[in-house]
Every structure is written in C-alpha cells, then in structure tokens.
Amino acid sequence: MTEEPELALFAEPWQVESPESCHFYHTMDIPGLGTVAGHVDLRPNAAAYLGNCDFAGRRVLEIGPASGFLTFFIEARGAREVVALEVSDRRIWDIVPRPDQDMAALQADRCNHMRLIKNGFWLAHHALGSTAKVVYGDASHIPEELGLFDIAVLGGVLLHCRDPLACLEACGRMTTEAIIITEQAMPWLEARAEQPLKWLAPSPENKVWDVWWRFTPGFFRNVLPLYGFADVRIVRHQQISLEKSYPHFTVVGRRARSQGEQAA
Ligand SMILES: C[S@@+](CC[C@H](N)C(=O)[O-])C[C@H]1O[C@@H](n2cnc3c(N)ncnc32)[C@H](O)[C@@H]1O
User: Fewer CB within 10 Å, N- or C-terminus of the chain?
Assistant: First the structure.
C-alpha cells in the first residue's frame, strides 16, 4: 500500500553545513557548536516568557520562531509536537509602507536576512535532533490542513503584523486550550497598562518600517475573550536584549471549560 505523502505544506529540513551562513536572533547553546550569541537571550527566563505554561503532551503551534530557541525549549518541555510557522521568502513581514524609502530594497534585504536566520534555525534543528515541523507562510492565513493545536504561541510577533487581530483570529480557530502572547512592555504605555491600548509605532518623524504596533497587556486581556479565551492571566518578566534587561509581559488566555469538563 502506498504511504500517504507528508503534507506538502511542511518544509523539507534544510541542510546547513556551517554557522558562517547563519544569523542567530536568539542566543542558544547548540551541541557541537557551543553558545552562539544572538540579539536576545531568553535562556535565563524562558519559562516566564512562555507564561509558565505546561507543554507536556501538547500539540503546539508557534508563530514566528526566528532562530527557534522557543521551538526547541517547548519541545524539551515535552510537547507532543511543535509546528513552527515562519514567514516565507515571497512574503516577508508586513513591512510598513514608507514612500521615502526604497521598499523593494528593504524587502530584498529583509528576505536575505531571514534566509540567514532560517539557516540558523535548521542548523540548530539538526544539531538538537529536533522533530519540530516548519511551515513557511503567514500568520493571518494559517492552513487549515494543519489541524487543531492545544496551544498557540505568539512571542514578539504581533507587533510586526499590520492586522494583529486577523492573526489572533486565525490562531484562535485552530487552538483548543490556550493562546500565549508575549510582547515588550513599553515605558510610555506602562501608566495605562490596564487599558486596552494599541499604539502605532511608525510616524512621519521616525523611519520605523519593521514594527507596526506596541500594546498594553490590557489590550490582550480584553481581546482574547472575544475569540473564546476568557480565562486570562498576565505574567510580568524581564528579558535580555543586547546585554540589557527589558520589561516584558505575557498574556495567557485559556478557553473557559464547560461545566461538564469542570466536573470531569
Ligand atoms: C521578534 S522575532 C520573535 C522570535 C520569537 N518568537 C521570540 O519570541 O523570541 C519575530 C518573528 O516573527 C516572524 N513574523 C513576523 N511577521 C510574521 C507573520 N506575518 N507571519 C509569521 N511570522 C511572522 C518573524 O519572521 C520572526 O521570526
């Protein structure tokens, strides 16, 4: 009998020979290579970054893995399966339109940079013996063929998405237990952290093209119940970026269990 082919939507693992062709977003300890230095070092506080959630036995959808530190961390915490969805070469981020800049050049630069990051992901994937699967696509259009997940993780992704609610809606449709969202807490929003605020990052005065939004935790506290994740918890933590420590928040939204489930 012919075996059913693996869904074509999963990427074939890339063969990456050398770290020279890689860029690491995360600082990571890679067997055979040692510690590679990245832009952020989540190692000291990774559990808090993920809201101290339990991944054992769970099927997890991770949006935007970059170098994959969280992918491999979640796997090591006993997830049944991790599927990581990363941007494709064809459609790199929702770049902010900037008529004053060469958009085609920005797009090409970002694509090349992401290739190096993807190389790093696959190098680490191989070295760690990871079985995580990868889909190249877009967070607002998650293929339904991927099936259902217990947990969806969106770490540092929604700030880059023009329509963060479309991403949340897409994740919510395929997630049965919990959605985990992590963002940096911006100092100018902290005094109103409880309020449901989404702040536009680009302005005529700055040249920001890679970040659309900054959020308060209150924004997600109010938004997640709209998609059925009514039991919301917020964890505050510090994370290291380029050797400095920055405040972050993680919002964990759980689907409210039915009375029958609670009694079981
Ligand atoms: C700042 S990095 C965060 C990496 C990691 N999740 C973390 O929390 O450390 C943002 C990641 O989101 C990805 N990303 C941005 N927009 C995306 C989209 N529309 N769909 C899927 N991934 C996206 C980027 O390519 C990158 O891998």
Answer: N
Ligand 1 and 50: CB distance under 6 A: no
CA distances from 252 to 34, 201, 231 (A): 33, 24, 8
Neighbouring C-alpha atoms within 13 Å toward the C-beta of 236: 10
Ranges of each domain in the chain? 19-263
Q: Which atom of ligand 1 has the smallest separation from the CA of 62?
A: 6
Strand 59-63 vs strand 149-155: parallel, antiparallel, or unpaired?
parallel
Residue whose structure tokens are 């420590």: 245
What separation in Å is there between the alpha carbon of 260 and the centre of ligand 1? 37
- pLDDT confidence of residue 17: 87
- Along the chain (264 residues), what's the average pLDDT of each consecutive run of 10 residues? 57 95 98 97 98 98 98 98 94 88 90 96 98 96 96 98 97 98 98 98 94 98 98 98 97 81 56
Task: State in words which class domain 19-263 has.
Answer: alpha beta
Residue that is written with structure tokens 């530190």 in the block: 69
Residue 157 CB–ligand 1 contact under 6 Å: yes
Residue entry with tokens 């919002």? 251
Atom 27 of ligand 1, residue of closest alpha carbon = 66
Say what the pLDDT of residue 91 is. Answer: 78
Q: State the distance from the centre of ligand 1 to the C-alpha of 66, rounded, in angstroms.
A: 6
Q: What is the DSSP letter of 139?
A: T
Report the interhelical angle of 103-127 vs 69-76 (nearest 10°): 30
Residues 6 or more apart whose CB falls under 8 angstroms from that of 76 comprise none
Distance 45 CA to ligand 1 centre (A): 19
